[in-house]
Design a protein that fits this description.
Elements (H helix, E strand, L loop, with lengths): L1 E6 L2 E6 L9 E10 L2 H19 L17 E9 L12 E4 L2 E4 L2 E4 L13 E5 L3 E3 L6 H4 L2 H13 L8 E4 L3 H12 L5 E4 L3 H9 L4 E3 L19 H17 L5 H10 L9 E4 L6 H8 L5 E4 L11 H6 L3 E4 L5 H12 L9 E5 L4 H10 L5 E4 L9
Parallel strand pairs: 10-11, 10-13, 11-12, 13-14, 14-15, 16-17
Antiparallel strand pairs: 1-2, 3-4, 3-8, 3-17, 4-5, 5-9, 6-7
Helix pairs in contact: 3-4, 3-10
The chain binds zinc ion.
């Protein structure tokens, strides 16, 4: 079969042996595969990530000198079943699958390990247990977005964003856009998006962001005033004294009971936005901590590979709730597929181009340079070389 493999940072189209499904595995004919920011990153920084994964006792993350087929965001049609499959997904069925496979020597991330070739290829292997039939006749151009949208869904769930909360998305690359689409699909308002690039700001609007700002001229943190967010230490101190003062003036009421009831209802903490950091470059987390209102919840989705400095005392004085998120659970992946198929979330603005296998190298260049593109898809049957 034809595939694109990366060795020493060079992407080459080549013939590779067709994969053979092992126990409990399905062989898919790839219909679409998304090019992910992680792929662009792994092309250059694979060894660095492999080092981190080594610290987590996973030795098989891709290394730059290996021949690795990328591609962990994909959909395809079942063409063969390995031994021991339960036969729950019939041949010909269009499916998406959580990109993890079990090999003879352990479990590997598809498209990010030489031991689990990905879907920049005509065919790819998946676990039957992690494969989900695409419902409602959903087309491959949308089904393929299940994986990146699941990343967004997991981030939003970990952010515990509720109706009435303000959500702020910093960085409008594919993941920021996925987060925006999910937030809007869940009825969150306002969603404020921030990106220095005009092209990405336009995509943020297309994904439904209510307010879009250029951080070079405006602050995303003050873009939607009137939500009662505290921004200064004197405001917090005044609130502490003032609320107890007021409660103690109410006759026959014990202020402690009122406070405990407010705590139980989640009303004792001042209102604060949920902020999604989707940039992942050095200085961004401290930048967010510095700009965020007091008590903000900050969800770090962008992957910064370098050492980075933050000022913990600033975060402490603002009681910033800092959370890091990774990927999604298999259930979140399944639920994302169904949200897409039911039309509850609209991810279509994310896709800005499609290429065949021969256009992958060119697509990497375009994604690395221009701001007009978000998600470029690979259609292994297409001859297109320009996204
Ligand atoms: Zn990805």
């Amino acid at each position: 079969m034809r595939a694109v493999a990366c060795t020493d940072g060079v992407l080459s189209v080549m013939e590779r042996p067709a994969p053979v499904p092992g126990k409990g595995q399905l062989l898919l004919e790839v219909t679409r595969c998304g090019i992910c920011g992680s792929d662009l990153h792994a092309r250059v920084h694979a060894d660095q990530v492999a080092g981190l994964m080594g610290e987590l006792d996973y030795p098989d993350f891709m290394r730059s000198d290996q021949e690795v087929v990328f591609g962990h965001e994909f959909c395809g049609q079942v063409v063969a079943q390995g031994p021991g499959c339960r036969g729950t997904v019939l041949e010909g069925t269009p499916v998406v699958a959580v990109p993890i496979v079990r090999g003879p020597d352990g479990v590997h991330p598809v498209g990010l390990s030489a031991k689990a070739p990905g879907a920049y290829a005509e065919q790819v292997l998946v676990e039957e247990s992690l494969a989900f039939p695409v419902p409602n006749g959903l087309g491959p151009d949308v089904a393929v977005l299940t994986e990146p949208m699941a990343v967004g869904w997991h981030a939003v769930r970990r952010g515990e964003v509720g109706k009435g909360d303000v959500a702020i998305v910093i960085g409008c690359g594919p993941i920021g856009l996925a987060v925006i689409s999910i937030l809007k699909g869940r009825g969150i308002e306002p969603v404020i998006a921030s990106d220095p690039s005009p092209g990405r700001r336009a995509l943020a609007s297309a994904c439904g962001a209510d307010v879009v700002v250029d951080p070079g001229t405006d602050s995303p943190y003050t873009a939607a005033p009137g939500h009662g967010h505290l921004t200064t230490a004197p405001e917090a101190l005044e609130l502490a004294v003032g609320s107890v003062e007021k409660l103690r003036k109410v006759p026959l009421v014990d202020w402690r009971h009122v406070w405990r009831t407010a705590e139980r209802l989640g009303k004792a903490t001042p209102k604060a936005p949920v902020i999604f950091e989707c940039v992942g470059v050095p200085g961004m987390i401290d930048n967010v901590i510095s700009g965020a209102p007091l008590f903000s919840r900050v969800v770090v989705v962008g992957v910064c590979m370098d050492n980075d400095a933050i000022r913990p005392a600033l975060a402490i004085n603002k009681e910033i709730d800092l959370r890091f998120v990774l990927a999604y659970t298999p259930l979140e992946y399944r639920d994302t597929l169904h949200m897409l198929a039911e039309g509850e979330i609209d991810a279509s603005p994310l896709v800005t181009g499609t290429v065949g296998l021969d256009g992958v190298d060119r697509a990497f260049d375009v994604l690395g340079a221009a701001d007009a593109h978000a998600k470029i898809l690979i259609d292994p049957r297409s001859a297109a070389v320009e996204p």
